[in-house]
Amino acid sequence: MSKKLIGIDLGGTTAKFAILTESGDIQQKWSIPTNIEDEGSHIVPDIIASIKHRLGLYGMTPSDFVGIGMGTPGTVDKENGTVIGAYNLNWKTLQEIRKPIEEAFGIPFDLDNDANVAALGERWKGAGNNSPDVTLITLGTGVGGGIIAEGHLLHGAAGAAGEIGHITVDPTGFDCTCGKRGCLETITSATGIVRLAREMSEEFSGESELKNMIDDGQMVTSKDVFDLAKTEDDFALLVVDKVCFYLGLACGNIGNMLNPSDIVIGGGVSAAGEFLIEKVQHYFEEFTFPQVTNSTSIKLAELGNAAGVIGAASLALKFSENNK
Ligand code: ZN
C-alpha cells in the first residue's frame, strides 16, 4: 500500500490537519482550536493528541506514513526543529517542536514558516504548476510571501528571505510595524488598503459612495473598496489603481530580480479576482524589461486555505523512498 503524508498548518486560532497521498491529494482533513494559554505550552501536546486520536479512529499506524510536515508562525530553525517569536501563539521563548512530535510517533518531521509553506503548496498543487520558480505574495491582514527559486525554498541568512511585505515601495510612505516606512504591507494589506482609502478621501471632491461611507464614519473594508471599484465608483477606482500600482511595482522588482515563471497572489484581498490581477499586470509590464515581461506570469492563487496543509505535507516528501 502506498504511504501517506500528514500536513499541519498551525495558526493563532486553529491548527489545520490533512492526510494526503504522496501525489498531494487530500484524503482527510480536520482542525482543532489553538489553545495559546500558558505561553502556548498546550499547542504541541494538543497536536500530538489530535493526530493520535485520528490514527486510532481509522486504524492507521505510523508505518502508514512517510512523514509529517508543519507550517508555523514565527522564526523557524529547520536544523534544530525549533520555533521562536511566534507572538500570536504566545511562543516568545524557544520551542522544541520536532523532538516531541518525532518521539510521539516515530515518523520523520519537518517544519517551515507558514508563508513559505503556503508558497510550497501553491507551487505543488495550485497556480504554480509545479514549476521550479514560483513566488507567492499573500495579501491578508499583513502581506507575506515565499520564494521558490530553481526548486529551492529561499530562507536567507536569518530566515527572512521572502518577506515581500517589507519591500519598500514608497520611501516617504506610512510607518510599518517592522520599524521602517513605506513597506508594501502598509498599502496593499487589507488594513493598508483601508488606511490608503481614508487618506486619499481627504483629497477627493467628486461623487463617490466609498467617500460617503468614509465621511459618514462607517466601517469600510478592503472588500468594500474593491466591490465599489467594480461598480465604477470613481474614488474606489482611484484607490484600487494606487494599490495595484504599488503591487505591480513590487511584482516588477521581484520579476526583474528572480524571473519566476509565476508570481502567485493569494490571501483575502485576492478574492477581488481577475479585476485585481489585470490591474497589477498593467503596472507589472511597465516595471519589467521585455524578457521578464514575456516569461513571468501574474496569477491568482488557487488553493485558498488548503495551501498551508498541502505545502506542509510537501515538506515530508523528502523522507519518501520514492525521492531517494
Ligand atoms: Zn515593514
Commentary on this structure:
This protein is of the alpha/beta class. Helices cover 39% and strands 21% of the residues. It has twelve helices and 13 strands. The strands form three sheets. It has a five-stranded mixed β-sheet. Strands 11-10-9-12-13 form a five-stranded mixed β-sheet, sandwiched between helices. The relative contact order is 0.16. Zinc ion binds at residues 166, 176, 178, 180, 183, 185.
What is this entry, summarized?
This protein is α/β, with parallel strands linked by helices and 324 residues long. It is built from twelve helices and 13 strands.
The string of secondary-structure elements, in order, is: EEEHHEEEEHEHEEEHHHHHEHHEH
> Based on the structure given, which CATH architecture of the largest domain is correct?
2-Layer Sandwich
Give the helix level as a range of percent. Answer: 25-40%
Looking at the structure, what is the overall shape?
globular
* Ligand roster: zinc ion
Strand order of the largest sheet: 3-2-1-4-8
| CATH superfamily (homologous) name of the largest domain | ATPase, nucleotide binding domain
DSSP summary, beta strand count: 13
Overall pLDDT confidence: 96
Low-confidence stretches: none
| Beta fraction | 15-25%
CATH topology (fold) name of the largest domain = Nucleotidyltransferase, domain 5
C-alpha-based Rg, rounded:
21 Å
Distance between the termini: 18 Å
Structural class: alpha/beta
Q: How many discrete structural domains?
A: 2
CATH level 1 name of the largest domain? Alpha Beta
Q: How many alpha or pi helices? A: 12
**Largest sheet: number of strands, sense, barrel closure:** 5 strands, mixed
